[in-house]
Protein backbone atom coordinates (compact mmCIF):
# COMPACT_ATOMS: atom_id res chain seq x y z
CA UNK A 1 0.00 0.00 0.00
CA UNK A 2 1.43 3.37 -0.99
CA UNK A 3 1.29 6.50 1.17
CA UNK A 4 -1.00 8.01 -1.47
CA UNK A 5 -3.48 5.13 -1.22
CA UNK A 6 -3.47 5.39 2.56
CA UNK A 7 -4.13 9.13 2.38
CA UNK A 8 -6.96 8.64 -0.13
CA UNK A 9 -8.60 6.03 2.11
CA UNK A 10 -8.30 8.35 5.09
CA UNK A 11 -9.79 11.28 3.18
CA UNK A 12 -12.76 9.23 1.95
CA UNK A 13 -13.46 8.04 5.49
CA UNK A 14 -13.18 11.52 6.99
CA UNK A 15 -15.38 13.14 4.31
CA UNK A 16 -18.02 10.42 4.68
CA UNK A 17 -18.03 10.71 8.47
CA UNK A 18 -18.35 14.48 8.21
CA UNK A 19 -21.39 14.25 5.90
CA UNK A 20 -22.98 11.68 8.21
CA UNK A 21 -22.52 13.95 11.24
CA UNK A 22 -23.98 16.86 9.26
CA UNK A 23 -27.14 14.86 8.65
CA UNK A 24 -26.58 13.77 5.04
CA UNK A 25 -26.48 9.96 5.17
CA UNK A 26 -27.28 9.56 1.46
CA UNK A 27 -24.33 11.78 0.58
CA UNK A 28 -22.09 9.98 3.06
CA UNK A 29 -22.90 6.46 1.89
CA UNK A 30 -20.91 6.32 -1.38
CA UNK A 31 -17.87 7.85 0.32
CA UNK A 32 -18.01 5.41 3.22
CA UNK A 33 -18.62 2.46 0.88
CA UNK A 34 -15.52 3.50 -1.12
CA UNK A 35 -13.59 3.97 2.13
CA UNK A 36 -14.51 0.44 3.23
CA UNK A 37 -13.45 -1.04 -0.12
CA UNK A 38 -10.17 0.88 0.01
CA UNK A 39 -9.57 -0.19 3.61
CA UNK A 40 -10.23 -3.85 2.74
CA UNK A 41 -7.68 -3.58 -0.05
CA UNK A 42 -5.06 -1.48 1.73
CA UNK A 43 -5.34 -2.89 5.27
CA UNK A 44 -6.71 -6.46 4.95
CA UNK A 45 -5.05 -7.54 8.21
CA UNK A 46 -5.86 -4.46 10.32
CA UNK A 47 -9.01 -5.32 12.31
CA UNK A 48 -9.21 -1.91 14.01
CA UNK A 49 -9.24 0.01 10.71
CA UNK A 50 -11.66 -2.45 9.12
CA UNK A 51 -13.99 -2.27 12.12
CA UNK A 52 -13.92 1.52 11.93
CA UNK A 53 -14.88 1.52 8.23
CA UNK A 54 -17.61 -1.10 8.79
CA UNK A 55 -19.03 0.82 11.76
CA UNK A 56 -19.20 4.15 9.90
CA UNK A 57 -21.09 2.52 7.01
CA UNK A 58 -23.35 0.79 9.53
CA UNK A 59 -24.27 4.12 11.13
CA UNK A 60 -25.30 5.49 7.75
CA UNK A 61 -27.34 2.38 6.91
CA UNK A 62 -29.13 2.77 10.24
CA UNK A 63 -29.94 6.42 9.49
CA UNK A 64 -31.35 5.29 6.13
CA UNK A 65 -33.50 2.62 7.88
CA UNK A 66 -31.63 -0.27 6.24
CA UNK A 67 -31.46 -2.14 9.51
CA UNK A 68 -30.48 -5.63 8.31
CA UNK A 69 -27.54 -4.21 6.41
CA UNK A 70 -26.46 -2.07 9.36
CA UNK A 71 -26.63 -5.03 11.72
CA UNK A 72 -24.55 -7.22 9.37
CA UNK A 73 -21.87 -4.51 9.20
CA UNK A 74 -21.76 -4.08 12.99
CA UNK A 75 -21.66 -7.85 13.53
CA UNK A 76 -18.76 -8.22 11.11
CA UNK A 77 -16.89 -5.43 12.89
CA UNK A 78 -17.59 -7.04 16.26
CA UNK A 79 -16.30 -10.45 15.09
CA UNK A 80 -13.10 -8.83 13.82
CA UNK A 81 -12.46 -7.06 17.11
CA UNK A 82 -13.33 -10.06 19.27
CA UNK A 83 -10.90 -12.25 17.29
CA UNK A 84 -8.07 -9.70 17.30
CA UNK A 85 -5.70 -9.56 20.26
CA UNK A 86 -5.41 -6.14 21.83
CA UNK A 87 -8.74 -4.73 20.64
CA UNK A 88 -9.98 -1.76 22.65
CA UNK A 89 -12.75 -2.89 25.05
CA UNK A 90 -14.39 0.52 24.55
CA UNK A 91 -14.78 -0.18 20.81
CA UNK A 92 -16.41 -3.54 21.54
CA UNK A 93 -18.74 -1.70 23.94
CA UNK A 94 -19.62 0.79 21.19
CA UNK A 95 -20.50 -1.99 18.76
CA UNK A 96 -22.83 -3.53 21.35
CA UNK A 97 -24.33 -0.06 21.89
CA UNK A 98 -24.87 0.25 18.12
CA UNK A 99 -26.39 -3.24 17.80
CA UNK A 100 -28.84 -2.25 20.53
CA UNK A 101 -29.58 0.91 18.56
CA UNK A 102 -30.57 -1.11 15.51
CA UNK A 103 -33.17 -3.05 17.48
CA UNK A 104 -34.42 0.16 19.13
CA UNK A 105 -34.88 1.79 15.72
CA UNK A 106 -36.66 -1.34 14.52
CA UNK A 107 -39.01 -1.16 17.50
CA UNK A 108 -37.72 -4.39 19.08
CA UNK A 109 -36.60 -3.21 22.51
CA UNK A 110 -36.58 -6.78 23.87
CA UNK A 111 -33.84 -7.69 21.39
CA UNK A 112 -32.04 -4.38 21.98
CA UNK A 113 -31.81 -4.47 25.77
CA UNK A 114 -29.13 -7.24 26.09
CA UNK A 115 -26.88 -5.43 23.61
CA UNK A 116 -27.31 -2.10 25.40
CA UNK A 117 -26.70 -3.63 28.85
CA UNK A 118 -23.65 -5.50 27.53
CA UNK A 119 -22.27 -2.29 26.02
CA UNK A 120 -22.73 -0.43 29.30
CA UNK A 121 -21.10 -3.22 31.34
CA UNK A 122 -18.15 -3.43 28.94
CA UNK A 123 -17.73 0.33 29.06
CA UNK A 124 -17.66 0.31 32.86
CA UNK A 125 -15.09 -2.51 32.77
CA UNK A 126 -12.98 -0.82 30.09
CA UNK A 127 -11.45 1.66 32.50
CA UNK A 128 -12.62 4.66 30.47
CA UNK A 129 -14.09 6.23 33.61
CA UNK A 130 -17.15 8.47 33.73
CA UNK A 131 -16.70 9.88 30.24
CA UNK A 132 -19.11 10.88 27.47
CA UNK A 133 -19.14 7.37 25.98
CA UNK A 134 -20.46 5.99 29.27
CA UNK A 135 -23.12 8.73 29.32
CA UNK A 136 -24.12 7.87 25.74
CA UNK A 137 -24.46 4.19 26.72
CA UNK A 138 -26.69 5.15 29.66
CA UNK A 139 -28.93 7.31 27.48
CA UNK A 140 -29.15 4.64 24.77
CA UNK A 141 -30.19 2.00 27.32
CA UNK A 142 -32.68 4.50 28.77
CA UNK A 143 -34.38 4.87 25.39
CA UNK A 144 -34.71 1.08 25.07
CA UNK A 145 -36.17 0.79 28.59
CA UNK A 146 -38.61 3.62 27.86
CA UNK A 147 -39.93 1.68 24.90
CA UNK A 148 -40.65 -1.17 27.33
CA UNK A 149 -42.43 1.12 29.78
CA UNK A 150 -39.65 0.88 32.38
CA UNK A 151 -39.77 4.61 32.98
CA UNK A 152 -38.14 4.88 36.42
CA UNK A 153 -34.86 3.18 35.39
CA UNK A 154 -34.90 5.05 32.08
CA UNK A 155 -35.24 8.43 33.81
CA UNK A 156 -32.41 7.63 36.22
CA UNK A 157 -30.15 6.69 33.29
CA UNK A 158 -31.03 9.89 31.38
CA UNK A 159 -30.35 12.09 34.42
CA UNK A 160 -27.09 10.31 35.30
CA UNK A 161 -25.97 10.57 31.66
CA UNK A 162 -26.90 14.25 31.52
CA UNK A 163 -24.95 14.94 34.73
CA UNK A 164 -21.81 13.54 33.08
CA UNK A 165 -22.31 15.40 29.79
CA UNK A 166 -23.11 18.73 31.44
CA UNK A 167 -19.59 18.74 32.89
CA UNK A 168 -18.55 20.05 29.46
CA UNK A 169 -21.76 21.24 27.78
CA UNK A 170 -20.16 22.76 24.69
CA UNK A 171 -18.16 19.65 23.84
CA UNK A 172 -21.12 17.32 24.35
CA UNK A 173 -24.01 19.45 23.08
CA UNK A 174 -25.30 16.92 20.49
CA UNK A 175 -25.43 14.13 23.09
CA UNK A 176 -27.10 16.46 25.62
CA UNK A 177 -29.76 17.21 23.00
CA UNK A 178 -30.37 13.48 22.49
CA UNK A 179 -30.80 12.99 26.25
CA UNK A 180 -33.23 15.94 26.50
CA UNK A 181 -35.20 14.61 23.52
CA UNK A 182 -35.47 11.16 25.08
CA UNK A 183 -36.31 12.51 28.53
CA UNK A 184 -39.00 14.75 27.02
CA UNK A 185 -40.45 11.86 25.03
CA UNK A 186 -40.46 9.75 28.20
CA UNK A 187 -42.40 12.45 30.08
CA UNK A 188 -44.85 12.61 27.17
CA UNK A 189 -45.42 8.86 27.34
CA UNK A 190 -46.13 9.23 31.07
CA UNK A 191 -48.64 12.05 30.48
CA UNK A 192 -46.37 14.72 32.01
CA UNK A 193 -46.98 17.08 29.10
CA UNK A 194 -45.67 20.34 30.59
CA UNK A 195 -42.40 18.68 31.60
CA UNK A 196 -42.22 17.09 28.17
CA UNK A 197 -42.56 20.44 26.40
CA UNK A 198 -39.86 21.98 28.60
CA UNK A 199 -37.35 19.22 27.75
CA UNK A 200 -38.24 19.04 24.06
CA UNK A 201 -38.06 22.82 23.64
CA UNK A 202 -34.53 22.75 25.11
CA UNK A 203 -33.57 19.81 22.88
CA UNK A 204 -34.90 21.53 19.74
CA UNK A 205 -33.11 24.81 20.50
CA UNK A 206 -29.84 22.99 21.15
CA UNK A 207 -30.12 20.88 18.00
CA UNK A 208 -30.97 23.94 15.91
CA UNK A 209 -27.84 25.65 17.25
CA UNK A 210 -25.33 22.80 17.01
CA UNK A 211 -26.69 20.65 14.16
CA UNK A 212 -28.35 23.34 12.05
CA UNK A 213 -31.93 23.70 10.77
CA UNK A 214 -31.83 20.83 8.26
CA UNK A 215 -30.58 17.92 10.35
CA UNK A 216 -32.84 14.87 10.63
CA UNK A 217 -32.17 14.67 14.38
CA UNK A 218 -33.82 18.09 14.75
CA UNK A 219 -36.83 16.72 12.88
CA UNK A 220 -37.18 13.90 15.44
CA UNK A 221 -37.54 16.43 18.26
CA UNK A 222 -39.90 18.67 16.26
CA UNK A 223 -42.11 15.63 15.61
CA UNK A 224 -42.09 14.79 19.33
CA UNK A 225 -42.94 18.37 20.29
CA UNK A 226 -45.79 18.31 17.77
CA UNK A 227 -47.15 15.10 19.28
CA UNK A 228 -47.21 16.72 22.73
CA UNK A 229 -48.89 19.93 21.49
CA UNK A 230 -51.43 17.82 19.60
CA UNK A 231 -52.20 15.88 22.78
CA UNK A 232 -52.77 19.21 24.55
CA UNK A 233 -55.25 20.17 21.83
CA UNK A 234 -53.08 22.84 20.19
CA UNK A 235 -53.53 21.51 16.66
CA UNK A 236 -52.39 24.67 14.90
CA UNK A 237 -49.03 24.76 16.67
CA UNK A 238 -48.61 20.99 16.25
CA UNK A 239 -49.38 21.13 12.52
CA UNK A 240 -46.70 23.78 11.97
CA UNK A 241 -44.12 21.68 13.82
CA UNK A 242 -45.06 18.54 11.87
CA UNK A 243 -44.75 20.50 8.61
CA UNK A 244 -41.24 21.66 9.47
CA UNK A 245 -40.24 18.14 10.51
CA UNK A 246 -41.61 16.64 7.27
CA UNK A 247 -39.74 19.22 5.19
CA UNK A 248 -36.44 18.33 6.92
CA UNK A 249 -37.03 14.58 6.74
CA UNK A 250 -37.93 14.62 3.04
CA UNK A 251 -34.72 16.48 2.22
CA UNK A 252 -32.38 14.54 4.50
CA UNK A 253 -33.78 10.99 4.59
CA UNK A 254 -36.11 10.89 1.58
CA UNK A 255 -39.87 10.70 1.19
CA UNK A 256 -40.05 6.90 1.62
CA UNK A 257 -38.14 6.75 4.92
CA UNK A 258 -40.38 5.33 7.69
CA UNK A 259 -39.98 8.46 9.84
CA UNK A 260 -40.93 10.71 6.91
CA UNK A 261 -43.99 8.57 6.18
CA UNK A 262 -45.06 8.56 9.83
CA UNK A 263 -44.53 12.30 10.28
CA UNK A 264 -46.35 13.13 7.03
CA UNK A 265 -49.37 11.12 8.21
CA UNK A 266 -49.26 12.99 11.53
CA UNK A 267 -49.17 16.31 9.70
CA UNK A 268 -52.15 15.43 7.48
CA UNK A 269 -54.28 14.27 10.41
CA UNK A 270 -53.35 17.23 12.60
CA UNK A 271 -53.86 19.79 9.82
CA UNK A 272 -57.33 18.38 9.21
CA UNK A 273 -58.10 18.69 12.93
CA UNK A 274 -56.77 22.26 12.97
CA UNK A 275 -58.91 23.16 9.92
CA UNK A 276 -61.97 21.57 11.51
CA UNK A 277 -61.52 23.50 14.74
CA UNK A 278 -61.08 26.76 12.79
CA UNK A 279 -64.20 26.06 10.71
CA UNK A 280 -66.12 25.14 13.85
CA UNK B 1 9.04 12.63 19.93
CA UNK B 2 9.08 14.29 23.35
CA UNK B 3 6.43 14.18 26.02
CA UNK B 4 5.83 16.81 28.66
CA UNK B 5 4.30 14.73 31.44
CA UNK B 6 3.08 17.72 33.43
CA UNK B 7 0.82 18.99 30.66
CA UNK B 8 0.46 15.70 28.73
CA UNK B 9 1.54 17.41 25.51
CA UNK B 10 3.52 15.43 22.96
CA UNK B 11 5.89 17.26 20.61
CA UNK B 12 6.64 15.54 17.30
CA UNK B 13 9.60 16.97 15.39
CA UNK B 14 8.98 17.03 11.64
CA UNK B 15 11.35 15.57 9.07
CA UNK B 16 12.55 17.75 6.20
CA UNK B 17 10.10 15.98 3.88
CA UNK B 18 7.19 16.56 6.31
CA UNK B 19 8.13 20.23 6.65
CA UNK B 20 8.06 20.58 2.86
CA UNK B 21 4.67 18.83 2.65
CA UNK B 22 3.26 21.13 5.33
CA UNK B 23 4.64 24.20 3.57
CA UNK B 24 3.14 23.03 0.27
CA UNK B 25 -0.26 22.24 1.76
CA UNK B 26 -0.69 25.22 4.10
CA UNK B 27 1.99 27.77 3.20
CA UNK B 28 3.15 27.69 6.81
CA UNK B 29 6.57 26.88 8.25
CA UNK B 30 6.79 24.64 11.28
CA UNK B 31 9.53 22.66 12.99
CA UNK B 32 7.23 20.42 14.98
CA UNK B 33 3.62 19.77 15.88
CA UNK B 34 2.29 19.50 19.41
CA UNK B 35 -0.68 17.36 20.38
CA UNK B 36 -2.27 16.52 23.69
CA UNK B 37 -2.23 12.82 24.54
CA UNK B 38 -5.96 12.70 23.81
CA UNK B 39 -5.47 14.24 20.35
CA UNK B 40 -2.57 11.93 19.61
CA UNK B 41 -4.55 8.86 20.59
CA UNK B 42 -7.41 9.97 18.37
CA UNK B 43 -5.00 10.27 15.42
CA UNK B 44 -3.32 6.92 16.03
CA UNK B 45 -6.44 4.91 16.84
CA UNK B 46 -9.69 6.80 16.27
CA UNK B 47 -12.47 5.42 18.42
CA UNK B 48 -15.63 3.99 16.97
CA UNK B 49 -18.63 6.32 16.83
CA UNK B 50 -21.84 5.39 18.60
CA UNK B 51 -25.32 5.83 17.22
CA UNK B 52 -28.02 7.95 18.88
CA UNK B 53 -31.04 6.07 20.20
CA UNK B 54 -33.62 8.80 19.83
CA UNK B 55 -37.20 8.21 20.80
CA UNK B 56 -39.56 9.11 17.94
CA UNK B 57 -43.07 9.47 19.31
CA UNK B 58 -46.02 8.14 17.38
CA UNK B 59 -49.15 10.22 17.67
Write the layout of secondary structure elements.
The complex is a heterodimer of chains A (280) and B (59).
Chain A: H1 3-21, H2 25-42, H3 47-63, H4 67-83, H5 89-106, H6 109-125, H7 132-147, H8 151-165, H9 173-189, H10 193-210, H11 216-231, H12 235-252, H13 258-279
Helix pairs in contact in A: 1-2, 1-3, 2-3, 3-4, 4-5, 5-6, 5-7, 6-7, 7-8, 7-9, 8-9, 9-10, 9-11, 10-11, 11-12, 11-13, 12-13
Chain B: E1 2-4, E2 9-13, H1 16-26, E3 32-36, H2 37-44
Antiparallel strand pairs in B: 1-2, 2-3
Account of the 3D structure:
The complex is a heterodimer of chains A (280) and B (59). In chain A, 81% of the residues lie in helices and 0% in strands. Chain A is mostly helical and 280 residues long. In chain A, helix 1 (3-21) packs parallel to helix 3 (47-63). Chain B has 59 residues and is an alpha+beta fold. Chain B has one domain. In chain B, strand 1 (2-4) and strand 2 form a beta hairpin. The N and C termini of chain B lie far apart (58 Å). The A-B interface holds A 17, 48, 51-52, 55-56, 59, 62, 77, 88, 90-91, 94-95, 97-98, 100-102, 104-105, 116, 133, 136-137, 139-140, 143-144, 146-147, 174-175, 178, 181-182, 185-186, 188-189, 217, 220-221, 223-224, 226-228, 230, 259, 262, 266, 269-270 and B 45-59.
